[in-house]
Amino acid sequence: MTVGSKVYTPPLGHDWLTPVYDTAVRALTREHVWRSAFIKQIDPSHDDRILDVGCGTGTLAVALKQMAPQADIVGIDPDRRALARAAAKATAESQTLRFVEGFLSESALPSKWKPTKIISSLVFHQTPLATKREILSTMSSLLPEKGAIHIADYGLQQSVLMRALFRSTVQMLDGVADTQPNADGILPELMAEIGLVVENTRIVPTPSGAISFYRAVPRISNNSPRAK
Ligand SMILES: C[S@@+](CC[C@H](N)C(=O)[O-])C[C@H]1O[C@@H](n2cnc3c(N)ncnc32)[C@H](O)[C@@H]1O
Q1: What residue ranges do the domains of the chain occupy?
Q2: Count of other CB atoms within 10 angstroms of residue 19
Q3: Which of 17, 118, 149, 157 is most exposed, with the fewest beta carbons within 10 Å of its own?
Q4: What would the pLDDT profile of 124-179 be if each residue is shown by its tens digit?
Q5: What band does 3 get if pLDDT is binned at 50, 70 and 90?
Q6: Ligand 1 atom showing the smallest separation from residue 79 Cα
Q7: CB within 8 A of 6, min separation 6: which ones?
C-alpha cells in the first residue's frame, strides 16, 4: 500500500485481508498468551502517556486502556482501514483513545505530546530494513530519559520447528525480504546500534513462529536493565 511517497504492508499482508486480521492473529499466534504477557511487561499506569506505533486494529491500545483508564494512549498507523476498526473497538468500550493516521514522526503526533512509554507489536517484521532503523531511531529520539520502549514481534527463530512454522505462515503472507532479518535476530542489534540498552525479556512459541519481547531504554537511564 502507498501513502504519499511511502509504502507499507497492511496488517495481514494484503488490504483485502484486513477484515479477518483479528481472527487470524487469534488463531495463529496464541494471542491471549502473548498479549496478556506483553501488557504485563508494559505495566500501564494511570499517569502514563503511551504511544502505540503501528497500532493496527487497536487490540493492544484498547486492552491497555482497560487496565489503566486514566492513561493517555495514542496509536499511530498509516492504514486507514485498520484504524477504522481500532476506533470502532474503542467506541464499543466507551474509551477515549486517539488514533493518528500516518507513519511515525514527531510532527505526526499531537502537538507538545511526549510519551512515557513507546510500544509496538507485530510491526517490524513487515517493514524493510531501512524502515526498521528509521522507526527505532524516531522512537529513541521521542523517548524521555526514564522512559522505555517495549516491542513484541517475531524475532530470532531458534528451533527447526519455529523456523518451519514462521516460513509456512508469516513468510507466506508477508514475503521473505522484510521478515527474514527479524527471524535472523536483527532487532536487538539495531536497537544496540543506536545506543539503546536492550533486553530480550521473553520468547513465546506460537503456531506462526516465536514472538520475542524486548525492553529497551536509553543507555544513560537509571532504569537500564543493566543498572538493576
Ligand atoms: C501486523 S499489523 C500489527 C497491528 C497491531 N500492532 C497488532 O498488534 O495487532 C502491522 C501494522 O503496522 C502498520 N505499519 C506498517 N508499516 C508501518 C510503518 N512504517 N509505520 C507505522 N506502522 C506501520 C501496518 O499498517 C499494520 O497496521
Answers
A1: 2-222
A2: 13
A3: 17
A4: 999 999 999 999 999 999 999 899 999 999 999 999 999 999 999 999 999 999 99
A5: confident
A6: 25
A7: 78, 103
Of the pLDDT bands very low, low, confident and very high (cuts 50, 70, 90), residue 78 is very high
Residue 13 is predicted with a pLDDT of: 86
Assign 228 a pLDDT band (cuts: 50, 70, 90).
very low
Q: Which three cell numbers stand for residue 154?
A: 517475531
- In the chain, where do the E strands start and end? 2-3, 6-7, 49-53, 72-77, 98-101, 117-121, 148-154, 196-206, 209-218
Ligand 1 residue neighbourhood (C-beta within 6 Å): 8-11, 25, 53-56, 59-60, 77-79, 82, 103-104, 121-123, 126-127, 131, 135
| Closest C-alpha to 154, from 2, 15, 28 | 28
C-alpha span between 127 and 133 (Å, rounded) = 10
- Of the candidates 178, 180, 61, 78, the one whose C-alpha atom is nearest the C-alpha of residue 121 is 61
Nearest to 64 by CA among 47, 92, 42: 42
CA–centroid distance, 46 to ligand 1, in Å, is 25
CATH for 2-222 (3.20.20.70, 3.90.180.10, 3.40.50.150, 3.90.550.10) = 3.40.50.150
N residues, the chain: 228
